[in-house]
Design brief:
The chain has 318 residues and is an alpha/beta fold. It has helices spanning 11-22, 54-64, 78-83, 85-105, 139-158, 189-197, 225-240, 259-270, 294-300, 309-317, and strands at 2-6, 26-31, 45-48, 68-71, 110-116, 161-167, 169-171, 203-207, 219-220, 222-224, 247-251, 257-258, 275-279. Bound molecules: uridine-5'-diphosphate-4-deoxy-4-fluoro-alpha-D-galactose.
Length: 318
């Protein structure tokens, strides 16, 4: 398959570029390098492109004529989205709308979309399945939910077929050691804990210890980035293997770990201590997010290989 991987220079995208290439696909990364790193694109071709730039997108679709598009180029920091919503709606929603228009114009109708658990907001029940009500509590989640809604309409009107994957907390690194989570600034819990362990930071803050959870800190469902990458390939194979309908899947491990538990696990695995500070809550954080991935398991054969939190953490430490 010839795949456009938009945002292939980012954390999740670069892992997918690698796996898709290793599975024999032709991969072309499109990225504006606003948060990604060109040296994270280990395989295939790289084309500089911003998804707002219709002329450039048109030119690339005409040059390559891809079989499918996988789209990862979004801003994804919950807290930032609450203080700069324009940035999120403009890139994540308007940018994707532009991309969809160019896809239809070029008769490319297979689309994999990277969505998020943030579309659900505060859960009404756990684990969260695909039919759970969608009430996002931050602009990031809303910017992604709007795309999910646009996709339904593009399917009805133009026959665009899509698979939406809603990730819970992507974590870990590829075992080659060649790829890493390299956000700047880093905001995610696990990489920040590792930086504290390494002495790159003085301490790790726990954002809120008064949530309605067993130890008062937020609970999240961590899924290894290579398991995410693998199921994306299964998704694109599904789309291209016949006249298949559009689908939406939640992706997680089904297990939840609190912020305190994650910190204690890193200390336990490494045998090293570091400074932990109990801080204020961070705006936009739901207390608990745990996925039900039954549908992806049943229909796509989703089968996470690195499914123990200790093993996910080890891939970061290594
Ligand atoms: N946290 C801390 N201290 C830190 C960093 C994070 O206590 O220094 C806490 C957060 O408050 C949260 C938990 O650790 O409770 C996880 O936070 P992350 O920033 O690692 O991840 P999020 O859950 O906020 O966000 C991630 C993705 C989003 C996605 C969301 C869905 O970045 O894109 O998961 O679960 F929407």
């Amino acid at each position: 398959m010839k795949l456009f991987i938009i945002g292939g220079a980012g954390y999740i995208g670069s892992h997918i570029v690698k796996l898709a290439y290793e599975n024999g696909h032709e991969v072309i990364t499109l990225d504006n390098l606003s948060t990604g790193h060109k040296d994270s694109v280990l395989y295939g071709k790289f084309e500089y492109c911003d998804i707002q730039d219709s002329n450039r997108l048109n030119e690339l679709f005409k040059n390559y004529n891809p079989d499918a598009v996988m789209h990862f180029s979004a801003y994804s920091i919950v807290g930032e989205s609450t203080i700069d919503p324009y940035k999120y709606y403009y890139n994540n929603t308007v940018g994707t709308l532009n991309l969809l228009k160019i896809m239809i114009d070029n008769d490319c109708k297979n689309f994999i979309f990277s969505s998020t658990a943030a579309v659900f907001g505060n859960p009404e029940y756990i684990p969260i399945d695909e039919t759970h009500p969608k009430n996002p509590i931050n602009p990031y989640g809303k910017s992604k939910l709007m795309v999910e809604q646009m996709l339904e309409d593009f399917d009805s009107a133009h026959g665009l077929k899509y698979v939406v994957f809603r990730y819970f907390n992507a974590a870990g690194h590829d075992k080659s050691g060649k790829l890493a989570e390299r956000h700047d600034p880093e905001t995610h819990l696990l990489p920040l804990v590792i930086q504290t362990l390494n002495g790159q930071r003085e301490s790790i803050s726990i954002y809120g210890s008064d949530y309605d959870t067993k130890d008062g800190t937020c609970i999240r469902d961590y899924i290894h980035v290579n398991d995410l990458a693998q199921v994306h390939l299964q998704g694109v194979e599904y789309l291209l293997s016949g006249d298949n309908g559009s689908k939406v899947y939640n992706l997680g491990s089904g297990n939840g770990f609190s912020v305190k538990e994650i910190i204690e696990k890193v200390k336990g695995i490494t045998g090293k201590d570091f400074k932990v500070i109990e801080d204020e809550r961070r705006e936009g954080d739901p207390a608990v997010l745990i996925a039900s991935s039954k549908r992806a398991k049943k229909e796509l054969g989703f089968s996470p290989k690195i499914d123990k939190i200790d093993d996910i953490i080890r891939t970061l430490i290594n």
